Amino acid sequence: MKPATARNKVIGLMFELRVPFFKPMWRRILTVILFFGWGTVEFVNAATLWAIGFYAMGALGAYQFFFAWRDPEEPSDED
What we know:
Layout (H helix, E strand, L loop, with lengths): L1 H13 L10 H20 L3 H20 L12
């Protein structure tokens, strides 16, 4: 059962967006705009499946960045 637990932890970290890079608000806004914008480009070019994928990533980003956002913890220098 341990390998499944380790695998679930890796998959959970793959979707973790609460990292110091996204702490400035402008980066979070720009990321969501880029996802929705590229989804619109794909939709206009009749690539509906890609458009849905980018819209889904934009929606996930919008939720995590604006509704469930908590500032990431700073790493401590203590050893």
